[in-house]
Amino acid sequence: MTLIRISSPHAHGSDSTASVMRRVLIATVPGVIALTWFFGFGSLVNIIWASLVAVACEALALTLRRKPLGFYLQDYSALVTATLLGIALPPYAPWWLIAIGVASAILMAKHLYGGLGYNPFNPAMVGYVVLLISFPVQMTAWAPPRGLGEVPGLLQALQACFLPAQYDAVTMATPLDMVRQNNSLLLEDLWRDPLFGRWAGIGWEWVNLAFLAGGLWLLYRRVFSWHAPVAMLASLGLMAALFYDGGSSASGGSPLFHLLSGATMFGAFFIITDPVSSAVSVRGRLIFGALIGTLVYLIRAWGNYPDAVAFAVLVANFSAPFIDHYTQPRSYGHSKSGGQP
After folding, report:
1. Could you tell me which residue, 337 or 278, shows the higher pLDDT?
2. Half-sphere exposure of 33 (CA within 13 A, CB side)
3. How many whole angstroms separate alpha carbon 313 and alpha carbon 319?
4. Which EC numbers characterise this protein's activity in its record (predicted)?
5. Reduced to 3 states, what is the DSSP secondary structure of residue 51?
6. Cα–Cα dist 60/53, whole Å
7. CA distance 224 to 63
8. Which of 100, 147, 260, 302 has the highest count of CB atoms within 10 angstroms of its CB?
9. Residues facing residue 149 across a β-bridge
10. Residue 315: count of CB within 10 angstroms of its CB
11. DSSP β-bridge partners for residue 142
12. What is the gyration radius of the CA atoms in the chain, in angstroms?
């Protein structure tokens, strides 16, 4: 069998790990701005606190492993993990919830397997799933978006994070939650709720479009290829179209609803494109993305977790070595069976 030759990230030049990570951080800016505009400063506080905890956990792990701190802390990988997890968490999450999620991501999902480049699962999604399973009430406490309520200011966001007992939180279900739990109203009746906005919920549609813009910029800069994101979005849209019955009470929502709600675009361009935990061949990335899109719809429609991106990604991460094994490109001079022609 001919093995795939995969090189590690370059240590120098425009394609160094630090350079790639900086581009990813820059690309999240439009989405973070949209989250801040529609939901207040909660997500921004999440990211800042998560980044501080991530650097501390990274330094602790490197010290215990007797690795040079300066070299590894400069690759920005811990900050990327913290930023992605901070974005995924509900705004105004308490400090201890963020700290547990970040520690799980950095210590358990990353350094337990040997550090950057050896983790089989996406660290940010591991941290998210640990919190979702352990603290479901806090993980479903989303604030009302701008237009349905007053958006909390920066001081209120800080109070919610570090003095949660003294903060009177106002939360509501997300559009994905409402569609998943609906069993009596037609979708056209459900859409009369102002929460649903024009396509997929007030705020959510613009947040997804903002992350789409950041993802397209990363594609333009060739940080990753188009195969996995396009395959995920295409399979999710196809599944939604196949099972969309026009809007009955049992309907899971239209393709546009699924593409512009929840963490769809964030997952497609910032999570599944992780080069370490995803498939590596071209065909493999197509299968990898299509598998995630299919799983996202199946879990959203019939599972217990309305968004489903994190669980779908972890299942696909687990399947990535299997996908790679059966999608290896044929080496020049070898037959498809791996022998000489």
Report:
1. 278
2. 11
3. 10
4. 7.-.-.-
5. helix
6. 11
7. 31
8. 260
9. 146
10. 13
11. 172
12. 20
pLDDT at residue number 332: 57
Which residue, chain included where needed, has tokens 């490197």? 62
User: Cα dist. 236→166, 279, 280, 297, 301 in Å?
Assistant: 41, 19, 21, 6, 11
Torsion angle, alpha carbons of 80, 84, 86, 89, to 10 = -160
What values do phi and psi take at 60, rounded to 5?
-60, -45
Query: Residue 118, Cβ neighbours under 10 Å: how many?
Result: 11
Residue 142, classed as helix, strand or coil, is strand
The pLDDT of residue 203: 86
Judged against a pLDDT cut of 80, whether residue 168 lies above it is answered with no
Structure tokens at 264: 């769809």
64 band by pLDDT with thresholds 50, 70 and 90: very high
Q: What is the DSSP string of 169-217?
A: ---B--HHHHHHH-SSS-HHHHTTSGGGTTTT-TTHHHHHHHHHHHHHH
Q: Would you place residue 6 in the very low, low, confident or very high pLDDT band (cuts 50, 70, 90)?
A: very low
Per-residue tokens: 43:
């997500």
Of the given ranges (61-65, 143-147, 319-323), which has the lowest mean pLDDT? 143-147
